[in-house]
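Appendix B, example 12.
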Amino acid sequence: MNLAESTHEFELLLARGGLAAAIGWLNASVPHRYTAAYRIAAAQLHSVYVHDKRGELPPGNLSTVDLDRSFCQFAVQANGAIVADAASDPRLADISAASKVVAYCGVPIGAGDVDLFGTLCHFDSQARAVTDAQFALLEAAGQQLYPYLMAAGFPR
């Protein structure tokens, strides 16, 4: 499937099956264990939805995270971020989540200060890489999630 087809599939799943179906499908496209949508409020990330390949409950300590102590801050600052192995990334020396999250790939949901909702990300406790195509799909999905979340009544 090319990017346009994958983006369309994500959009259809979002419309027909909701957030869980779309994020579950997105997670199946990468090796990472988790795929999550986070809302940013009061300098914190609040979990909107987390999909786990194993079907287990996500770690409770990842349901609310300080933005400045998270990998997501880099996705917001740089309009996307990829960390294949936290141990080899000097930006993460002071990030408490780096002891639990080793691999991360994230993009903003929305844009700018006014329309920034949060982040959409893949993460894992093991080193993982993403391809350019997988990252492009995550970017496209992040753009599609913003209007969906606003229409569904999620607060900014």
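Helices lie at 3-28, 72-78, 112-115, 132-151. The CA atoms of residues 78 and 107 lie 9 Å apart.
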